[in-house]
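=== RUN LOG ===
request id: a7f3
mode: sequence -> structure
chains: 1
length: 409
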Amino acid sequence: MSRRLFIFLPAGENESATWLLTDSAKSEAPVDIREGLDQASLHAAGARIVVIVPGHTVLLGQARIPTRNRQRILSALPYMLEDQLASDIDQLHFALGERDANGDVNSAVIDKQLMNGWLARLRSFDIEPDILAPDLLCLPLAPGHWTLFHDHRYSLLRTGVQSGVVIDNDNLVTMTGIFLDEAADQRPEVIDCFSRDPQALPLGELEAATAVAVEPIDEPTPAFLARHYDESNAINLLQGEFSRREQLGKLWRPWFPALGLLAALIIINGAVTVADYFRLGKEQERLTRHIEQIYRDAFPQARRIVNPRVQMERGLDALRVGGGALSSDFLDILKAGGPAFSKTKGLELQRFSYRDGHLDIALTISDLQALDQLKQRLMNEAKLQVEIQSASARNGKVEARMQLRRGTS
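=== RESULT ===
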């Protein structure tokens, strides 16, 4: 992403934010500095959004914490910096930087309420920042040097890759001397001073403490900071509860119960579907065996069964087309006797076979009277010749065999 949208937020809510758009492929091109977040939001799409906040609202600190575990560092850091903090640690947000050459952990501390106010203001214009960093860490820094940016109200003193302090101009010499004394053997070779008004710098007093190199600047402060901004050396304040991942988590968290219920319903539905699949598979196997048995009863001469339904249809077609008088007699008898059989209650057909013009049927029926009534229906209504070949009572029913032939016309 080559385009970067720099937004410079003021400390006060009533002050206007400034912004500028840069292209890394055209880093030397002049920039147009504008005001108003409403206009900045129009350029946010497709750009990496870097929000720069006033350095005097952020405390850059260092602490010697031996562990490498990030969570343990975050737990210990507030207590390691407690002497430097004016507010209750519960009201502060701690962001981790890198370890310096001495093994100290660099960090940035800022008031949570201030962070919430900035983010709410940005989001009211649909601006979601990728980076939120203090202006102090946007200053250029040469190896072995410190950098001083002198402004009309305050000065930014960068003492390391992720360390520095904001000093009001009235105490600039005193505080710089204190920091130089504390640096001991790590004192800078030179302090690089940048100012739009070099004559306002207390050069004589600074030079008494260390070597000073002055470079006047003729561009606006936002343009100067954006030009020297190095993301790899900045401390991004959007960590922990202010990270984008955490913000997305807050948006999704109210939906977790519903999503859990949906997941449970999907699992239950899947389990039911699988159970139905296996149940219907077994039912299909049972029906297939039943169809095969019907086919074997109808065509006892069949030896190989591949598709009983298709084979049954082909067998019936063969009877209709190729059976001549045989197939005609068989179908005529079935057609004629069907209504009589369907009207008889308690009738169960066990098996039947057709041979030489007569249809042999084995059946069970409720009693002998019902058997006689069936015979009369077949003879009177169906006009068939009926012969009861056997009839015997068993288990409260009558088992009988009868033979049907076409009636004489």
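=== NOTES ===
The chain has a mean pLDDT of 86.
The CA atoms of residues 366 and 397 lie 5 Å apart.
=== END ===
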